[in-house]
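Form 7-S
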Amino acid sequence: MNLVIPLMSGLAVGSIYGLVAIGFSMIFRAMGLVNFAQADIMMIGAFLGYAILAAAPGIPFPIAVLGAMIGAAILGLAIERVAFRPALKRGADQIHLVLLTLGVGIVLANAARLVWGADPVVYPTPLTHEIVRVGSYPLPVVYFYIAAATPLLLIGLQLFFTRTWLGLALRAVADDPDTAATFGIRSGLASSLSFALASGIGALAGALYAPITYVSFDMGVVGVKAFAAAVVGTLGSIPGAVLGGFVIGLGETFGGQLIATEYQDSIAFAIMIGILLVRPNGLLAGARR
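Output:
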């Protein structure tokens, strides 16, 4: 079996899972909430990138991605303020909050269907069809954007959480909200910032994933495997989210090559089950900071 192309494909798809999983972990870390709307925010981000490229043909792809991230971050902030903060103030428990995230996701999916239609669309950029040969192996150019974006994002998040006041405040609220409150750091700041950052990162994943496949109102199903990646890596851990993404992405890609591609989804969740039987709290349990 030729290993180079499945390896590169698995790493690229695993990076996408990891980026979406970072959003799951950030919100869980800040609020103890599993936000199933994260997957549909990724989808909205992909559509925002499509809209920018369609409205401004010839715009550099990184600029379109940045625009999608900003738009999705604003959307995430609005969702937190309009939907989740009022529910938290009224004392909603975790079950109702999770149901709320599912409802928000359904609304976003149907809103995308209303605005952009039910038919899948392809990014109107040459990048969608561009390939480059590494040796004798043809690889989509977008793989290299993904390869650059993932480590840059991790470095950026590390600097943000360790070198900026907002990042340190967010960590303080996540670790000990009562003590943070005595220093005047509001928990609302942490939840708003977490939603905005997670949504922007989700949009990055959607805009990078779209040239590999297509954009559709139901592409949020990718988020199910991204959630599995977050759980495999340890929910709440950003490095764990990326590690889990690689495990799921590589596992399903090579498993699909060995068995059949139609079983990739089953293989991904079989990997998750197998890991959790051995490491119930994820691969990085005990190292989450």
